[in-house]
């Protein structure tokens, strides 16, 4: 098995992130530093930061409602609370599509690195839906600019066209098919608006409305829902 696939099957991260772990020297195979394209077998000893890792036998799939003020990063020394404090254990669990500290809403959390990789792969254009409140009145020009794509100077990227509609004078729903860092906040900023509230309500076909979760709560996804995620992602 290719090394990055092996690391992903341990539920640690996606294959892309696994390549970064290999390149940074955090991975060893039988005590030696490997190359990104190396293969490994069941008899090889693969370690992350000196600790042996093995493929996960029974996978976990959770839907979690991240509250405002909770951070996604496992090892942030300045964080008062992380998502893993609510879940109870970090283990090999990771998430598909982070939410920043000031945002709330749905996270898919799993130790299935293959699924995380498929959800996060930009070219797959999987939908994520948000409810957003800003500090200015929304007009047709704002909606048009957001829908057609906004050039983000600091990232030197233009966002993909998206679906957006106003729900009040200063709030809107938006459906994105990409996940640039703090994308919605950056888009609004470029158009002279500041986000005061941001909530992710849907990831692909999984919706907070169907889960009846309160902030900080999580629930295991059924086999049927996981199967549907696999079908949607093509894996």
**Helix percentage:** 25-40%
The major sheet is characterized as:
9 strands, mixed
User: Which structural class is indicated by helix and strand composition?
Assistant: alpha+beta
Beta strands, count:
14
Task: Give the DSSP E fraction (strand runs of 2 or more residues).
Answer: 25-35%
Q: Could you explain how this protein is built, in words?
A:
The chain has 235 residues and is an alpha+beta fold. Helices cover 26% and strands 25% of the residues. It contains eight helices and 14 strands. The strands form three sheets. Strands 4, 5, 6, 7, 10, 11, 12, 13 and 14 form a nine-stranded mixed sheet that branches. A three-stranded antiparallel sheet has the order 1-2-3. Strand 5 (94-96) and strand 6 form a beta hairpin. Helix 1 packs across helix 2. The longest helix has 11 residues, at 223-233. 27% of the residues are buried.
Summarize the structure.
With 235 residues, the protein is of the alpha+beta class.
């Amino acid at each position: 098995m290719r090394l990055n696939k092996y690391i992903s099957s341990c539920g640690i991260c996606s294959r892309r992130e696994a390549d970064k772990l290999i390149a940074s020297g955090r991975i060893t195979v039988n005590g030696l530093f490997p190359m990104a394209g190396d293969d490994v077998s069941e008899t090889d000893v693969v370690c992350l930061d000196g600790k042996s890792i093995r493929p996960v036998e029974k996978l976990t799939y959770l839907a979690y409602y991240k509250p405002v003020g909770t951070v996604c990063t496992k090892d942030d020394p300045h964080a008062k609370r992380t998502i893993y404090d609510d879940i109870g254990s970090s283990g090999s669990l990771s998430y598909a599509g982070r939410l920043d500290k000031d945002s709330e809403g749905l996270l898919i959390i799993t130790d299935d690195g293959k699924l995380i990789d498929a959800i996060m792969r930009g070219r797959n254009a999987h939908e994520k839906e948000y409810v957003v409140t800003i500090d200015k009145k929304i007009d047709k020009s704002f909606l048009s600019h957001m829908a057609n794509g906004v050039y983000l100077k600091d990232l030197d990227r233009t966002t993909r066209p998206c679906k957006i509609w106003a729900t009040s004078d200063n709030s809107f729903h938006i459906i994105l098919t990409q996940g640039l860092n703090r994308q919605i906040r950056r888009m609004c900023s470029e158009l002279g608006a500041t986000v005061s509230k941001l909530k992710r309500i849907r990831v692909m076909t999984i919706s907070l409305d169907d889960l009846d979760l309160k902030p900080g709560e999580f629930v295991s996804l059924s086999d049927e829902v996981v199967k549907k995620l696999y079908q949607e992602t093509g894996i």
